[in-house]
Amino acid sequence: MARTAFLGLGVMGFHMAGHLARAGHQVAVWNRSPAKSAAWTGVHRGEAAKDPASAVFGAEYVLLCLGDDPDVRAVFDAFEPSLGAGMTVIDHTTASAALARELAERCRAKGAHFIDAPVSGGEAGAINGKLTIMCGGEEAPFAKAEPVMNAFARAITLIGPSGAGQLAKSVNQICIAGIVQGLAEGLHFAEKAGLDAEKVIAAISGGAAQSWQMENRWKTMTDGKFDFGFAVDWMRKDLRITLDAARENGASLPLTAQVDQYYADVQAMGGNRWDTSSLIARLGRKPD
C-alpha cells in the first residue's frame, strides 16, 4: 500500500480520499478549512495535516482535487519544497493544459512526476468509486500510479503527454454541453406539443437519441428539480478553460460558446449551484 497525501476535500475529494483509506493506503489529508479535514478523519482512517507541505512530506503520491488554476498553483507553491525524487503528483482538478505542462516541468526539476488526471462522473461517481479519469503524463509514472487511482475509478486512460488529460476533459464537457441543451429543447418541445414526456422518453431512449443525460436527468428536468449534481458555476469554469484552449489551438466551438452563454442566463436566474441540467429553466421549466 502507498503513502498518499490528498489535498482538497470538497464535494469530490472527500469521497475520493475516503476510497484511498478504505483500500488500505496511508492517507494524510489537508483542506483549506480545517473543519473538513476533521470531519474526514472522523469517519476515515488517516491524519489531518496542518498545511499542504506537512501533508506531502514523505508521501509517494500527492493527489489534488481543487477548484481552478489559481487554487492549484497556490497549493502547489505551498508544498513544492516537500517534493522529492520519485514522488508523483496527480492533479484531479479540472484545470488548464498550460498549467499541467508548467507543473510537470516543476516536478521534473525536483526529480518527481506529474499526472494531470481530471475526472468525470460527478459526486455520485466519487461516492461510488466509479469515476472516469483522463490522464496526461509519462507512461512509467502513470503505470505505477494507476493502481492508486483504481481505488475510486471505473476507467482510467492515459491520453498522451502532460496536458492531454485536461484537453480530453474539455472534449467531455463540449459533448455534455451539447447533449444537455438538446435534451432541454426536446423536453421543452414535447411539453409545448402536449405530449406525455414519460412515453416520449420510453419511445426514443432505446434509439439513437439515447444518452446518460436522458436516462438520468429527463425526469428531474421535467419536474424542475436542480438542487443536486454538477453545479452550473463549475460547468462555466470548465467551459471557460475549454474556450480559452480553443482560441489557442484554432478549434471552432460555436455551440459550446452558445451553451456557455445559456449557462450565464441560468446564473442570472440564481442558478449558480443548480445542476447543469437546469438549462431547461431558460425555456420555461422553472424550479419547483
Report on the structure:
- InterPro entries: 3-OH-isobutyrate_DH-rel_CS, 6-PGluconate_DH-like_C_sf, 6PGD_dom2, 6PGDH_NADP-bd, HIBADH-like_NADP-bd, HIBADH-related, NAD(P)-bd_dom_sf.
- This is 3-hydroxyisobutyrate dehydrogenase.
- GO terms for molecular function: NAD binding; NADP binding; oxidoreductase activity.
- Pfam families: NAD_binding_11, NAD_binding_2.
- By secondary structure, the chain is an alpha/beta fold.
- The protein has helices at residues 13-22, 34-43, 52-56, 69-79, 97-109, 122-128, 139-149, 164-192, 197-204, 212-223, 232-249, 254-268; strands at 3-7, 26-30, 47-48, 61-64, 88-91, 113-116, 119-120, 131-136, 153-160.
- The N and C termini lie far apart (48 Å).
- The relative contact order is 0.10.
- The model has no long low-confidence stretch (mean pLDDT 97).
What key phrases describe this protein's structure?
six-stranded parallel β-sheet; three-stranded mixed β-sheet; 12 helices; N-(1-d-carboxylethyl)-l-norvaline Dehydrogenase, domain 2; Rossmann fold; alpha/beta
Reconstruct the topology from this structure.
Layout: E1 3-7, H1 13-22, E2 26-30, H2 34-43, E3 47-48, H3 52-56, E4 61-64, H4 69-79, E5 88-91, H5 97-109, E6 113-116, E7 119-120, H6 122-128, E8 131-136, H7 139-149, E9 153-160, H8 164-192, H9 197-204, H10 212-223, H11 232-249, H12 254-268
Parallel strand pairs: 1-2, 1-4, 2-3, 4-5, 5-6, 8-9
Antiparallel strand pairs: 7-8
